[in-house]
Amino acid sequence: MDTQTYLEDLSNEIFFEIFDYLHALDIFTAFASLNKRISSILQSIPLHVIVSIIHCRNQIDFLSSHLIFHAHQVISIRMSDTIRDDTSMISLLFNRHNFINLQFF
User: Fold this and answer.
1) Biggest CA-to-CA distance, the chain
2) Each residue of 31-62: pLDDT tens digit?
3) Which helix H or strand E contains 48, and what residues bound it?
């Protein structure tokens, strides 16, 4: 008897574990539009935002558009030193969203 298991067959708890290891950009890029169930799970997970120097502007634009509905889920933000020194990049992200659940790590 040959049975196949699909990604959608995984329990919610497994998805929570997987998402705990990923950054917000990776989660939205890979999982945001798969199906209603996974989209629903994405509504309840804590998010870690990491913006690297490579493709910084594209990352911030992408995250800003997706964080409209998820800003309350962001618990950490990490940026490279070069980006932190660029106030225009910082304002792109922080002027659009209130991150009310940020935690100190």
Assistant:
1) 60
2) 988 899 999 999 999 998 888 877 777 787 88
3) strand 47-51
